[in-house]
Predict the structure.
Amino acid sequence: MDNNNKKWFSLNLSNKKKQEPGTCECGKTSEGCNSSGNDHLRDADFDAAVDATIAEERTKDGFEQVFDVQMDRRTAFKKLTASLLIGAGAVSTSCSVIAGDETKEKAQIDWEEQFKGNYKLMTRDEKESTVGRLVRSYQLRTGKNISMSSKNAEEDVLFGYAFNISKCQGYMDCVTACVEENNLDRNSQMEYIRIHEMKDGKGFNFNEADDNYYHEVPAEGHFYMGTQCFHCDNPPCVEVCPVQATWREDDGLVVVDYDWCVGCRYCMAACPYDGRRFNWSTPEVPEKEVNKNQHYLGNRLRKKGVVEKCTFCVQRSRVGKNPACVDACPTGARIFGNLLDPDSTIRWVLENKKVFRLKEDLGTEPKFWYFMD
Amino acid sequence: MNRHHIAINFICAFFLVLLVFSCKHKEGEYHSITDKIEAEGKNFHGTSISSEKYIGDIKTIEVTENEHTFLIPERKSQIKSYTCSECHSKPLHQMQSSVKKAHWQIATEHADTNTMNCATCHDGANMDDLKSITGTKINFNASHRLCAQCHTRQFEDWKGGAHGKKIAGWAPPRASMTCVNCHNPHKPHFKSKWPARYNTQKVKERK
């Protein structure tokens, strides 16, 4: 790579050969092209050979290992053919004289979206241009306009949440508000929030709790507690992600780049709170129900095979609003605010009520506290 | 002998360094979220975000209770046919016999009749204000003080922000609902109702 600051990958075949004088065109490193080689390599030769093939892997990580390898002509052609096949369609439509301007633009957008980088590493401009492309793409496809934000975390903000288990009555208005706000898949009836109905006097017994009740609430002798993504300060889901498609933002929100996620679901296995959801099929939201006020990291429309979760409604919270669940709760059981602001209500709750968190002993440091009156 | 000492010292130093580094979590320099809040909140100068525009058309008034100052919705303009003295021109006992009946639909389901009746909060001689247990005037816009006479714990929580709903967003200025925005003072209990949704897919999957 001629420029290490570049965040995208570019094939650079010509430079490779100059760097590796010992490598001949067929890719072999120690012997001549046509020689069959000795049956028993000497130890020194063997070490040299190993070094030549994997030395870079010892120092490089992630996709550099895959992309930054020494490459002979044959493999290079193989890889090029594969990517060319993917791109050929797009190129042919964009260069075609018969195809309309819109088709060309669509192809151009798809091409650029396909090869964009990880959102976490994007500059301000790159973020804006990808958001612009997504908005334009939606407009071209559906004829409708959406607004999508790429607003970064504000300084001096750390979001926290408190849930009053003696106030929650199990009405589930929060769940409905969340589904509508975040464009959740209506087909699989995906829900970020779970409200667990628990028997009084049994403690937090999640095994016996019912999170899909349907009877008049509050039911006699029961209490209700809601769970969702707790936006841990030490999130295990982030640590296991092999492609760094999920991370903790500066304001404490744990977010997912849906376009970078490969759908391995390691994060779902790592989350001790069952906070993440997977799109087994393409999420479907009726056009008239789509919430058009979107954020790149939040409620924009997802695709099949990616993981998603509660983002504390990043499209709302970053502009000063409360998450949809907080606004929808008729009992005032949900409290949201800035943990760094000493005058915020969330801070008063933490300092004056007896608060606790789930599985505190794991050291995940969730920013979601429970309390009682 | 000397070399032996150096080796021991070296091993000790190694374990000391190991000890220091093993105490560190990966989340940065803080051991817990409370440490982080304390350290990063120390130099808090406020944010540029305001939730003022989300209050919308709701007319608010500022209240200060102890060290807490925040907005609550203005009440008087929300009461139909306020001021009450437009009808209640005479003290109540003089009106009860002569003028036709009003407010018959209000049935109080608030505490029991030993503790409360209409006159606990309303003053028959001055219907434009509420009255405390000892008979002092309480403005309709400050009705939370009336409730606070008995519901002291809820009042404390409300002042701090643990009880009750907020009107706008999380960002300052803080705007909270007042007691009567959620609780009907004559019938303050929440009714039981059916949950807003039922997940049929979950039922299928769990079978």
